[in-house]
Amino acid sequence: MSAENHLQVIFITNDKKNKEKAIEEGIPAFTCEEYVKSLTANPELIDRLACLSEEGNEIESGRIIFSEHLPLSKLQQGIKSGTYLQGTFRASRENYLEATVWVHGDDEENKEIILQGLKHLNRAVHEDIVAVELLPKNQWVAPSSVVLHDEGQNEDDLEKEEERERILKTAVNEKMLKPTGRVVGIIKRNWRPYCGMLSKSDIKESRRHLFTPADKRIPRIRIETRQASTLEGRRIIVAIDGWPRNSRYPNGHFVKNLGEVGDKETETEVLLLEHDVPHQPFSQAVLSFLPKMPWSITEKDMKNREDLRHLCVCSVDPPGCTDIDDALHCRELENGNLEVGVHIADVSHFIRPGNALDQESARRGTTVYLCEKRIDMVPELLSSNLCSLRCNVDRLAFSCIWEMNHNAEILKVRFTKSAINSKASLTYAEAQMRIDSTAMNDDITTSLRGLNKLAKILKKRRIEKGALTLSSPEVRFHMDSETHDPIDLQTKELRETNSMVEEFMLLANISVAKKIHEEFSEHALLRKHPAPPPSNYEILVKAAKSKNLEIKTDTAKSLADSLDRADSPTFPYLNTLLRILATRCMMQAVYFCSGMDNDFHHYGLASPIYTHFTSPIRRYADIIVHRLLAVAIGADCTYPELTDKHKLADLCKNLNFRHKMAQYAQRASVAFHTQLFFKSKGIVSEEAYILFVRKNAIVVLIPKYGLEGTVFFEEKDKPKPRLIYDDEIPSLKIEDTVFHIFDKVKVKIMLDSSNLQHQKIRMSLVEPQIPGISIPVDTPNMDINEPERKKKKREK
Fold it and tell me: What is the pLDDT of residues 631-682, one digit of tens each?
């Protein structure tokens, strides 16, 4: 081998003993850090080194802040003996000195433990699995109603922290105290890479900076970087490496630069990463399982399938919808009864169990709809084409067909795989126009009128049973077709036809749930909505009481009835506000496996059994339900995972997580677009209603924009007003003005960009006027978009 081809082998290890051995044997050996630091041509690589904390170095950096974490063996013993409890650590978004631990296991007592103060949180990070020790009862605390964010830039502000911790412990009455504890050890870290921004150190030439995560539940992270000036004002990703006992914040390292803050692409990327939404393009392996184009229905496809292409089927969806899951038909039978069909895209025909396409769809779990972007669960060829029930093309469907009398009573139901050809793809508005128009009497319109008539009866019956009609202010943006910026913001309008489609989707879901549960009592995939514990309703009952209304919450039916009765002739919007508040009291609906649970009830729909069957293009749960139903009617074969209740339970866990994250990502997208809207709109004053009162703030809803925000009454560097908070009513007295839930106020809305990372809509009180608090309406257009230059520490 010639000399120039001779490769030098070097050995990289972080194991001290290994390195010594290698050097003894004449092998050049380096630690990872030494090697990376020797690559002088790529200095930026140093930033990506994990920050390894040497336990021995603890003495040099002074005081120890946190108590030691106990070793795993001790924790396990303690959990076994009941000295410690194991649970998931959930940090608070509103108060960085507070967290709760959700205890694992079935013990009804101490289900939720409160932790307050830095030392008791003891370096646990949101979602970690921790061991906690309960404090004696005389040290229990109540959840604080104070909003506190970690503004500190300075390591040595521990005295300030302690003062803030004292604020939390305000006088409370006995019954508000909750089981309180402290973290004694970490069982499993659940760290992930975090998005956020660099808070550059005030010390010139410093390499050590604090990183502020976008998620307020995550503590700031100290990183070392040489490129601080290029990373300022950018969204970056950082990973945590460790959290020594003598450090106020965890240590971490820089991973990736995402782009300019405020840029639409960057912010969407942050939003998807922060909510763990899988959004990479589909891989070749996944795409290889798609059907070859041009595609058409073959004789083989028609095996075990009914040809329903002659039926007058149509779909009704929001404008611009390309992933059409469902279509409907209604016709009169010779015996005078009505035949109604719900036809759902047959996605499980194209996605076969266990292949790469199936695995990827299961991992994604759901399609995520952002304000101007859709992250598909299945590739576009299926979602917008072959599985989309567009008009005038042959499509494969799974049909649920009822025979009903004119009073919407079901006489027979059957399920069949089918081939359909939709005669019209309508929007809700177009369908409504057809129903209302006296001039139109074609087949499609007659079918729609029949469906609408039955839907009204079905809805009335459902509501009589106690189904809830709740409200949430849903917002729609009107986008500029060129810039894609929001130019108008309004709450969504609902038509009768929205309700018509919804009734038949609910009916199909309930019919299918009964069928798959009859066939597979142990492994049907169902959806349940637990009844909220009575304490959830306290706020609703108190709020109604303050307006002299009584809300009963012992059953869904009594809640629905009392909401229907709760109206005020002088305050028509009150009923909507009560329904919005009632929505906040609800539990999350979840998927579960029938063999692993015995409570199937769906509280919100007042149905003893429910599942999801009608949206297989955008929900993976529906694909599983299709497969179960296909096996039940002999239209397809089964496979081992489909009848394994433990596998199904694991799948449900992922689906519940993905659905929750999709919901949060959608909200975050609306919040970001709302900011863009107010950025271009400037400052506006609008009417608002109080939804909640806090100790130092009120939370208001602005009906015009469906927008919620907080009006704070304590501002930094301003004299503090006299605040009296009463939790019983609840009310907040500021100077001489008292605020109750549902009071009408006027607020000024503007975009506050003083903190680039958390740009937020800022609201201030205009009316009622309180000297020193309210802002006159015509204040000059203050520019609060200039980040205030931090006072240099040197000026102290």
Answer: 999 989 999 999 999 999 999 999 999 999 999 998 888 888 888 888 888 8
Report the Cα 472 to chain-centroid distance in Å: 15
Predicted confidence at residue 170, as pLDDT, reads 56
Strand 394-404 relative to strand 373-375: parallel, antiparallel, unpaired? unpaired
CB within 8 Å of 309: residues ≥ 6 apart: 394, 419, 420, 421
- 116, β-bridge pairs: 98
Mean pLDDT over residues 553-567, rounded? 84
* Amino acid (one-letter) located at 14: N
Average pLDDT across the chain, whole number: 84
Q: How many CA atoms lie within 13 A of 474 on its CB side?
A: 10
- For the record, the structure tokens of 747 come out as 């607020």
pTM for the structure as a whole: 0.80
Highest mean pLDDT among 32-41, 70-79, 547-556: 70-79
Q: Which phi and psi (to 5°) does residue 758 adopt?
A: -115, 65
Q: Is the pLDDT of residue 792 over 70?
A: no
- Residue 493, SS3 per DSSP: coil
Other C-beta atoms closer than 10 Å to the C-beta of 160 total 12
- On whether the CB atoms of residues 379 and 323 are closer than 8 A, the answer is no
- Residue of 144, 147, 149, 256 whose CA lies nearest to 194: 256
pLDDT tens string 328-365:
999 999 999 999 999 999 999 999 999 999 999 999 99
Residue 277 has what pLDDT? 94
Find out whether the peptide bond into 730 is cis, omega within 30 degrees of 0: yes
Degrees (nearest 5) of the Cα angle 753, 755, 760?
Answer: 55
Q: How far apart are CA 452 and CA 503, in angstroms?
A: 9
Angle (CA) 401 406 409, round 5°: 60
Distance in angstroms (rounded) separating the CA atoms of residues 446 and 429 = 16
Q: What percent of the chain has pLDDT over 90?
A: 45
Tell me if residue 499 falls in helix, strand or coil. Answer: helix
Virtual torsion, Cα 476, 481, 482, 485, nearest 10 deg = -10
Q: How far apart are CA 194 and CA 613, in angstroms?
A: 36
Backbone angles phi, psi at 681, to 5 degrees: -85, -25
* 132 token code pair: 């906690």
Please give the Cα distance from 454 to 408 (Å, whole number). 5
What does the alpha-carbon distance between residue 129 and residue 121 come to, in Å, rounded to a whole number?
Answer: 13
Q: For 12-30, give one letter per residue: b (16+ CB within 10 A) or e.
A: eeeeeeebeebeeeeeebb
Q: What value, to the nearest 5°, has the Cα angle with vertex 495 and ends 491 and 501?
A: 120
pLDDT > 50? residue 254: yes
